[in-house]
């Protein structure tokens, strides 16, 4: 058996062990101002202070590759819990609320993915940009076309990424060029599951776009698919827009509320996540918490489309798992740092400002927990996969000027949140291999 390939990285190490809002600092995170991160064959072996490097076995140190990022911040890779790669070409489209925006921009953009070349070009672009932004894992919507998922998964597999993706399921209230049937969506999804689920680090996620564009028959098939294997995921949308909520009530009058539609068809529970969740009732929050159903907080999209402001304090306080999400193309950037800045502003407007520690937890371990991937990614606990990023805290003159006056780690993290962007991402590593 070949000897393991060791990597020892020097820098300021930060990772989260628990939610900082619920645990004292000593239990919530580990910060090493001058520390090491040690990996073997891409898997985390441990962290420690640089002065205690002797804790690493001599044989590992002797044969290791070394990466010196002294003075820079090393974090686990960022986790985007809800985004549409097939909408990358329409970011920043002007002036609509959700339902009009879908018809005017989204559906025409996604229709182009009937062409496999469009899918391949877009998948390559989006994955390259995700890595440039420091995002190493994402829950990704394809279009209704199976080739959109094939293209994204092939690109992700080639780079050894931990990604989730699924084919959109839509069999009503959408143009013919982006519509399938209940039966066809089931067959296509089953084929994609057999082709991609569990290949390398990839997982498949069942993806009804949202309740209005699926018939009860299609939602029933989606629920059957979810139950067909013990580790499949589900993603969709929930309570994003007030008119959408009213429309769902008209289409499904027998159900108590929007979430109850998904509950009825068996689409809630572990490994299920719903984007937006702005207009939830108390019952829906309690039901999500009880079932383990997660919410994706999409601040840039929610503001851009005028949908409302997600109540992170209330939803997380109810016990719901919450992750942070760009929601490109309703969201206006692939940058999780920029998205985190908007999340702070939304929480501030709701009078429960997101602390810098909890914000970076949300972008790393919180996102991994929302996707039920925290046993493999999200922090630097031994045995976790070695995806991590290196952030340059003086990437712009404004940041450098502010950082020179920051007195604490929390101040530096908050300055990074509010002033940072992709220019701060000095390097992105996938399983210990530098990818950007």
UniProtKB/TrEMBL annotation:
Annotated EC: 3.5.4.3
Name this polypeptide is given: Guanine deaminase
Reaction(s) catalysed by this chain's protein: guanine + H2O + H(+) = xanthine + NH4(+)
InterPro entries named among the record's database cross-references: Amidohydro-rel, Guanine_deaminase, Metal-dep_hydrolase_composite, Metal_Hydrolase, Metallo-dep_hydrolases
Function: Catalyzes the hydrolytic deamination of guanine, producing xanthine and ammonia.
Membership in a protein family: Belongs to the metallo-dependent hydrolases superfamily. ATZ/TRZ family.
Pfam families named in the record: Amidohydro_1
Claim: Zinc is one of the keywords in the record: yes
Cofactor, free-text remark: Binds 1 zinc ion per subunit.
